[in-house]
């Protein structure tokens, strides 16, 4: 666990909140923290085992976030969601109302999937849903102006730069077509579940919603200040129409 990065993230997000910007943090890491706490060499394959580890890790993870944000007198709240918030209108409305109430109190919600109930995003039948998609769904729920996805890479390239040295960074993407999809491949680390493919999936949702997403490197969370300031950082996914309006 990179405590320094978590501490910087708490500093940056608190500063945004102090400026009146409404912030929601979607964070994975429950499995990773749980695996570390139990000194496991790798992620177990049995789903109930994964769920247990995620539950163990999640309580530790939220404890660390709570402590780091408290350093800056910033309150946070734990929000664990399941897919039914998008299926049942009543659940959707309840979540919207809860987010609204947290925003009014200037509390930063920290969202993860409720892995005890929902197993879609773990090593199950599909790898199409993970925290990248969850962040896009949360953006829809709160009608966010911008989704920032922080990864271990500087942005979206024309191929996986770890494998293809000719891959170049794309600074803007306007639509997710076959060519863009062909650039995106799987995760770079054992703990990553989706890699670039699920980030592009999230971007597709965002663009469909006529919203914006920036994919950037999360190594130094202060990069968020540059993104908010409109500097060219990472890859900006934006519907073409938004760019035309700007011109
Ligand atoms: N076109 C691409 N551009 C950038 N990274 C890519 C691309 N295709 C695959 N990748 C891989 O995706 C990784 C980022 O996803 P990762 O952070 O591992 O997944 P997750 O966020 O789900 O844990 C990069 O480090 C890289 O190895
Ligand atoms: N909810 C689980 C899995 C989250 C997940 O999909 O992780 P990631 O591959 O980083 O998007 C966790 O917190 O570990």
UniProtKB/TrEMBL annotation:
Residues given in the record as ATP binding sites: 151-152, 193-199
SUPFAM superfamilies with a match to the protein in the record: Carbamate kinase-like
Which ranges carry the Aspartate/glutamate/uridylate kinase domain?
6-217
What is one term from the GO cellular component aspect held by the record? cytosol
Residues at which substrate binds: 28, 115, 131
UniProtKB keywords: Amino-acid biosynthesis, ATP-binding, Cytoplasm, Kinase, Nucleotide-binding, Proline biosynthesis, Transferase
Principal subcellular localisation of the protein:
cytoplasm
Q: What does this protein do?
A: Catalyzes the transfer of a phosphate group to glutamate to form L-glutamate 5-phosphate.
Q: Would you identify the family this protein belongs to, as annotated? A: Belongs to the glutamate 5-kinase family.
- List the protein's name: Glutamate 5-kinase
Organism annotation: Agrilactobacillus composti DSM 18527 = JCM 14202
Species lineage, top-down? Bacteria, Bacillati, Bacillota, Bacilli, Lactobacillales
């Amino acid at each position: 666990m990179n405590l320094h990065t978590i501490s910087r993230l708490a500093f940056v997000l608190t500063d945004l909140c102090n400026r009146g910007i409404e912030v929601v943090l979607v964070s994975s890491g429950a499995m990773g923290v749980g695996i570390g706490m139990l000194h496991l060499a790798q992620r177990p394959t049995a789903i109930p085992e994964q769920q247990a580890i995620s539950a163990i890790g999640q309580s530790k993870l939220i404890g660390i976030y709570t402590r780091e944000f408290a350093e800056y007198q910033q309150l946070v709240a734990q929000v664990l969601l399941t897919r039914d918030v998008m299926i049942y209108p009543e659940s959707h409305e309840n979540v919207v109302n809860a987010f609204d109430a947290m925003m009014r109190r200037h509390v930063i919600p920290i969202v993860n999937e409720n892995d005890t109930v929902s197993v879609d995003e773990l090593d199950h039948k599909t790898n199409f849903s993970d925290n990248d998609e969850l962040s896009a769904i949360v953006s829809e729920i709160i009608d966010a102006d911008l989704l920032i996805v922080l990864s271990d890479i500087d942005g979206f390239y024309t191929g996986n730069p770890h494998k293809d040295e000719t891959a170049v960074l794309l600074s803007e993407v306007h639509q997710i077509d076959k060519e863009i999809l062909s650039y995106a491949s799987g995760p770079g680390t054992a703990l990553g579940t989706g890699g670039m493919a699920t980030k592009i999936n999230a971007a597709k949702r965002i663009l469909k919603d006529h919203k914006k997403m920036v994919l950037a490197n999360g190594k130094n969370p202060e990069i968020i200040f540059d993104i908010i300031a409109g500097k060219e950082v990472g890859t900006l996914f934006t519907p073409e129409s938004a760019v035309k309006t700007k011109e």
